[in-house]
Automatic annotation (TrEMBL):
The lineage of its organism: Bacteria, Pseudomonadati, Bacteroidota, Flavobacteriia, Flavobacteriales. Keywords: DNA-binding, Sigma factor, Transcription, Transcription regulation. It holds the Pfam family Sigma70_r4_2. Residues 14-77 form the RNA polymerase sigma-70 region domain. PANTHER family: RNA POLYMERASE ECF-TYPE SIGMA FACTO (PTHR43133), RNA POLYMERASE SIGMA FACTOR HI_1459-RELATED (PTHR43133:SF8). This is Sigma-70 family RNA polymerase sigma factor. NCBIfam families: Sig70_famx1, sigma70-ECF. Residues 127-177 form the RNA polymerase sigma factor 70 region 4 type domain.
Length: 188
């Protein structure tokens, strides 16, 4: 018994599959622009890989398998790029501000309002003194990540530490800096 071999018809992909692929994607990424981009990437990857299509599955099934890999790659990329997805930081341990932060949502740079405040010479001097009082490795990692804005991967390679260790150091440095700033600046 012969089975019918399916063929690809890229000219009809948008009219035949775009809506279905988009709806499949939006339920997994919950971002309209990202869903559109992933569908476009799927069509492009499908065009590039047409010679690999063996006709054993339907055109839609084949496109969905490509799309699934695109979605997985997207999540791997954002999780590995951060290296800190679920690291919790206990930033305030007492008083009305007590609570945790998820590391990826913690303030990572000292811009806008804080930059304006740092222009004040006294604050800058106190902050520098507080950073100088950190253990040497903490100060180095803090400066590289927060002030100089090096990538996590680059810092880890240069200092031969893991990304988990880096985020522990950053957390401890921030905690010590907060305490130092509270004692030397905010209580004045």
């Amino acid at each position: 018994m012969l089975t019918k071999k399916n063929i690809l018809n890229p000219k009809n992909w948008i009219s035949s599959h775009a809506d279905y692929l988009y709806n499949y994607t939006i339920t997994r990424v919950n971002n309209h622009d990202l869903a559109k981009d992933l569908v476009q990437e799927t069509f492009l990857a499908g065009l590039k890989a047409m010679e690999n299509f063996q006709g054993k599955s339907s055109e839609r099934t084949w496109l969905i398998s490509i799309l699934k890999r695109k979605i997985i790659d997207y999540y791997r990329k954002i999780n590995s790029a951060k290296g800190k997805a679920e690291v919790r930081m206990n930033f305030y341990t007492d008083g009305e501000n007590e609570g945790d932060w998820i590391e990826e949502r913690a303030p990572s740079d000292w811009s806008s309002e804080i930059d304006k405040s740092i222009e004040n010479d006294e604050l800058s001097i106190v902050l520098d003194k507080c950073i100088d009082h950190l253990p040497e490795k903490y100060a180095m990692v803090f400066r590289m990540k927060t002030i100089q804005q090096f990538e996590t991967e680059d810092i880890c390679k240069e200092l031969e530490i893991t990304s988990s260790n880096l985020w522990v150091i950053i957390h401890r440095a921030r905690t010590q800096l907060r305490k130092c700033m509270e004692e030397n600046w905010f209580k004045k």
